[in-house]
Amino acid sequence: MDCIFCKIVSREIPSKIVHETERLIVIEDINPQAPTHLLLIPKTHYLTILDCDDREVLAELLDTARKIARDVGVAKKGFRLVVNTNEEGGQEILHLHMHLLGGKVLSGRMG
Ligand code: AMP
Ligand code: ZN
């Protein structure tokens, strides 16, 4: 499948993988918007969060984000989790992923 995140999951395209679980990988964003900018990517190809009905994947996204936030040291000061969805939501890559941003005071703008 011609999907950049599927290719990252299968190691066809290199990335900086910082964590891996049964159902997802966590990589460094190639164009970071904050000192910590990680992407949590399910290994299964779901176009958007609307297409994922697997509650174990959904739970693992949140559980892993909480763990990684603590592990990389942004939990206490604060961080942001973002799931851009479809065109007006700003989703550029149509393979479900969650952004974990932190390490600075994040913009207050949400839209
Ligand atoms: P979104 O706009 O929510 O679809 O976010 C896509 C994100 O993927 C952006 O923050 C990009 O910088 C990031 N990205 C695109 N290509 C790569 C890549 N090869 N490795 C890591 N991150 C990438
Ligand atoms: Zn994919």
Total beta strand runs: 5
Class derived from helix and strand content: alpha+beta
- Gross geometry: globular
Q: What is the first-to-last residue Cα distance? A: 32 Å
Radius of gyration, taken over Cα atoms and rounded to an integer in Å: 13 Å
Helicity level = 10-25%
Number of helices: 2
Q: Which small molecules are bound? A: adenosine monophosphate, zinc ion
Low-confidence stretches: none
SSE string: HEEEHEE
Task: Please explain how this structure is put together.
The chain is α+β, with helices and mostly antiparallel strands and 111 residues long. Helices cover 22% and strands 23% of the residues. It is built from two helices and five strands, in the order H-E-E-E-H-E-E. It has helices spanning 4-9, 55-72, and strands spanning 17-20, 24-28, 36-42, 79-82, 98-102. Strands 1-2-3-5-4 form a five-stranded antiparallel β-sheet, with helices on one face. A hairpin with a 7-residue loop joins strand 2 (24-28) and strand 3 (36-42). The longest helix is centred in the middle third of the chain and has 18 residues, at 55-72. The N and C termini lie far apart (32 Å). The mean pLDDT is 97. Zinc ion binds at residues 3, 5-6, 45, 95.
Q: What's the short version?
A:
The chain is α+β, with helices and mostly antiparallel strands.
